[in-house]
Amino acid sequence: MGGAGGGGDDVKVLGTWASPHTLRVRLALRLKGVSYHYVEQDPNKENTTGELLLPGNKQPVMMIHGGKPVCESSNILQYINDIFAGDLLPADSYERAATRYWADFIDDTLVDAMYKAAWGKTEIEKAEGKNQEAAAVRALEGALRECSTPFFGGKNAGYVDIVLGSLLPWVHSTDATRGVKTFDHAMTPLLAVWTDRFCELKAAQSVMPDVTKEVDFAMAMSLHRSAQRERANYYILWYISIFCTVPILFMISMLL
Fold first, then answer.
1. Which of 198, 153, 4, 202 is nearest to 86 (CA)?
2. In sequence order, which residues have a C-beta less than 8 Å from that of residue 217 and are 6 or more positions away?
3. Are 96 and 158 within 8 A, CB to CB?
4. Rounded Cα–Cα distance for residues 112 and 116 (Å)
5. Who has the most CB within 10 Å: 3, 73, 122, 158?
6. Is the separation of the CB atoms in 11 and 187 below 8 Å?
7. Which of helix, strand or coil describes residue 35?
8. Contact indicator for 36, 28 with CB cutoff of 8 Å
9. Can you tell me the distance from the alpha carbon of 88 to that of 230, in angstroms, rounded to the nearest whole number?
10. CA atoms of 76 and 255, how far apart (whole Å)
11. DSSP at 114
C-alpha cells in the first residue's frame, strides 16, 4: 500500500526525453498525482538509439527523493508504488506475480525483439526480430483479452500499462520509419484500442514526447549507427587487404 502523496521539490527525476525508462517513471508519478522536478540529461553522451530501450545499467534514469537516489526504472516504479498514495500493483499475491511476469515479458522479450527488428546487424537478424516481435505482441493481445478490463491494471492504468505505455513513442516512431503498424486494429484490436485509451489519459498526455520529434531522433540515430557500421566494414576490409597483400609482396621480393 502506498504511503502519503506529495512530491514537489522533494522529488527529482533525471533522465532523457527519448528513453522509455525515463518515461515510465514520469508516467508513474503522474498517475500517482506526485509533482516532481525533471532534469533533462544528454541522450547522446553515452547512449545511442536502441540502447535507450535496453534494460540494465544502460537505463539513463534516476529518481532522487528526499536527497536519496533510486536507480533502474523497475526499482523506481516499485519505490513509487510503496511510498506514494495509490497502488500500481494489485493487492492479490497471484495477480501481483502475473503483473510482474508481463512487465518482465515486455522488458525482456518484446523490447529485445523490437531492438533486433529495427537495428539488427543483418537482414536475417532483422527478420528474426520481426517474427519475435509479432509473437510477443500476440501474447500481449491474449493477456489483455484475459483481463477483460480497459487496462492491464483493471479499470485504471497500472504497472503493466505504464511499462508498455512507455514504449508507445518508440513503437509509433519505428512504425513510421519501417512502414508498419505494430498495434493494428485488424490483427490486435484490443491493443489498438488500449493504445488510444492510454494516450488519452491526462497523465500520459502531460509527459508523452512528440512523435514527430521521436521519429526525427530515431532516424538520425539510425543513420549514425549505419555510418558506424560502414566505418567498421571499411576497416575490416582494409585489414583483410593488408593481411593478404603483405605475404604476396614478401613472396614476390623473395623471387626477385
1. 4
2. 18, 43, 49, 173
3. no
4. 6
5. 73
6. no
7. strand
8. no
9. 45
10. 71
11. H
Query: DSSP 3-state assignment of 151?
Result: strand
Taking the CA atoms of residue 135, residue 139, residue 142 and residue 143 in that order, the dihedral angle to the nearest 10 degrees is -160
The pLDDT, as a whole number, for residue 209 is 86
**Phi/psi at 137 (nearest 5 deg)?**
-65, -40
- Beta pairing, strands 7-15 & 61-65: antiparallel
If one counts every other C-beta atom within 10 angstroms of the C-beta of residue 143, the result is 17
Burial of 241 (0-12, 13-18, 19+ CB in 10 A): exposed
Range list of β-strands (E), the chain: 7-15, 35-40, 61-65, 68-71
The pair phi, psi for residue 67, each rounded to 5°, is 85, 0
CA atoms of 130 and 180, how far apart (whole Å) = 11
β-pair partners for 6: none
Distance between CA atoms of residues 160 and 242, nearest Å = 53
Q: Are 157 and 198 in contact (CB under 8 A)?
A: yes
pLDDT digits (tens, 9 = 90+) for 79-104: 999 999 989 999 999 999 999 999 99
Whole-prediction pTM value?
Answer: 0.79
- pLDDT tens figures, 134-169: 999 999 999 999 998 999 999 999 999 999 999 999
Question: How many whole angstroms separate alpha carbon 52 and alpha carbon 64?
Answer: 20
Cα separation, 159 vs 153, in Å, equals 7
Digit-coded pLDDT (tens) for 200-222: 999 999 999 887 776 676 666 55
**Distance between CA 169 and CA 239 in Å, rounded?**
41
Q: Which residues contact 97 (CB under 8 A, 6 or more apart)?
A: none
